[in-house]
Write a structure and sequence with these properties.
- There is one protein chain.
- The strands form six sheets. A five-stranded parallel beta sheet has the order 6-9-12-3-13.
- The chain contains 19 helices and 16 strands.
- It is about 40% helix and about 15% strand.
- The chain is elongated, with a radius of gyration of 29 Å.
- The chain is α/β, with parallel strands linked by helices.
- A hairpin with a 2-residue loop joins strand 15 and strand 16.
């Protein structure tokens, strides 16, 4: 049932049925979880809707594998280095669930009203018949996520005997004395376990029966509960040797093992930075492009430990840092517009170096490596945007003795006022037009990028110190 639209989304109104009798009369059809996911996925593909919003760079690799696994009804483990979007991919699966799903009201495991599975719910269904109360659970409530840590216990994932229930007078043999863990409580939903190899091996063993036989073993009790749950997990391949491993019997129970990867295309890298970063100032596209190229260069560098990977969070944090530098400058200097400029890139490198794992033979050269790769990324961006522009008049003007000063605390207006006069040349306007620069902050950044490009091409010189950069 659809209600009033909000933006690009359509609000789905909670169904009105409140009892099992009303639910049956409405013509509701019960589906298993895997059939529900399969039908919704196929419906989206049939209608040309993208079931994976916000995911970039996986369209021809990871997504087809994932869709085939879900259509087959398999439990899934995603393998990939840090920052490849594994958790986001898992959370996006929620969109394949029905907007609303009926459950027995107040049932501990969220059982379907047509199929109670716990002793308590079966008793209530028998006593109340068509008057058994029904509640509706939203799709977000049917997704549970657990970060695997070495101290995770069997009770956390599977369950344990509840001493409070025993103290109330129930006997230890009573199934109602059990407090269920995360996986049983995700009945008719998706349970995601991040960093699966971090689970102690004995805890992984406890998951075997749940994933295959769908029964629960707790302190000698064996409960034959027909659990309907999709188990998905993520892992870093290096965890198999560094911190732990996925035991072979558990790996065997995952129907699909899918490898993720970093974006293959520059445009996808840029899109991820734009999507995920929370920017407090204007960060022009060319600066985001430099960060994206910088990140990709780090992933290809022999000086960087590629087993650890270079997370997408590196570039995201970089964009947020240069935005912070821009608003810091604008606040202190009274600028009307907070706009990031190339000079702010150095502030990002200063704080991001600790996010990179270098090879053991590169001690002491970390800053040199980062500076070199940032210059390379900047030069590539300059070539991409300024190809064909003739900078001869600007180079000649600077060669005649004019010096241009910029820096972390130099305002855009001061920078523009200090530029050499080029007579009737429209070079500055052409530079700004190439980068879509309109206000003073954007114009200053565009021309600063051109100057940095000329320096990298060894057309002009550059001196840095005391928070200032002088081109001459």
């Amino acid at each position: 049932m659809t209600g009033q639209g909000r933006g690009n989304f359509v609000e789905v109104i909670r169904p009105p049925q409140t009892t099992v009798g009303e639910l049956r009369s409405s013509g509701h059809v019960q589906k298993t979880l895997r059939v529900e996911i399969r039908d919704n996925l196929l419906s989206a593909l049939r209608e040309g809707r993208n079931p994976w919003p916000g995911l970039h760079g996986f369209a021809s690799t990871v997504i087809p594998q994932l869709e085939r696994a879900l259509i087959a009804g398999h439990d899934i483990v995603l393998l990939g280095e840090r920052g490849q979007g594994k958790t986001r991919l898992l959370r996006t699966m929620v969109g394949l669930l029905d907007e609303w799903s009926p459950v027995i009201k107040d049932s501990e495991l969220g059982e379907h009203p047509f199929e109670p599975i716990t002793v308590t719910s079966v008793r209530r269904a028998t006593e109340l018949g068509d008057d058994l109360p029904v509640a509706w659970r939203g799709r977000d409530e049917r997704y549970a996520e657990k970060l695997a840590t070495p101290d995770t216990s069997v009770a956390d994932l599977i369950g344990d005997v509840d001493p409070m229930k025993v103290a109330e007078g129930r006997s230890l043999g009573d199934p109602e004395t059990i407090h269920f863990g995360l996986i049983p409580r995700s009945h008719r939903g998706i349970v995601a376990i991040n960093e699966l190899p971090d689970l102690a091996e004995r805890i992984q063993v406890a998951m075997l029966n749940v994933m295959e036989e769908r029964d629960i073993q707790i302190r000698g009790y064996v409960l034959r509960l027909p659990l309907d749950v999709l188990v998905v997990a993520s892992a870093n391949p290096e965890d198999y040797t560094n911190r732990g491993r996925i035991i072979t019997p558990l790996k065997d129970r995952f129907g699909a093992e899918i490898r993720t990867h970093y974006p293959a295309e520059l445009a996808d890298e840029i899109a991820i930075i734009r999507q995920e970063s929370d920017l407090v100032a204007d960060v022009p596209d060319y600066l985001v492009e430099i960060l994206a190229r910088f990140t990709r260069a780090l992933r290809e560098s022999s000086a960087v430990d590629q087993r650890s990977g270079v997370s997408a969070r590196f570039a995201i944090a970089g964009a947020e840092t240069i935005a912070a530098a821009a608003i810091h400058r604008a606040t202190r200097q009274g600028e009307p517009d907070a706009v990031a400029r190339p000079v702010d890139l150095e502030t990002a490198v200063d704080v991001l170096g600790g996010k990179i794992e270098f090879e053991s033979g590169e001690e002491g050269r970390e800053d040199e490596i980062l500076d070199h790769l940032l210059r390379t990324a900047t030069a590539e961006t300059v070539r991409a945007h300024f190809r064909g522009l003739d900078f001869a008049v600007l180079v000649e003007s600077i060669a005649s003795g004019v010096m241009v000063t910029t820096g972390e605390q130099v305002t855009a207006s001061d920078f523009l006022a200090g530029l050499p006069v080029l007579g009737e040349s429209e070079l500055y306007d052409e530079i700004c037009a190439r980068l879509g620069a309109t206000n003073d902050g954007q114009r200053a950044g565009a021309i600063e990028l051109a100057l940095e490009g000329l320096y990298l091409m060894r057309k002009i010189s550059k001196e840095s110190g005391e928070g200032e950069v002088i081109y001459g």
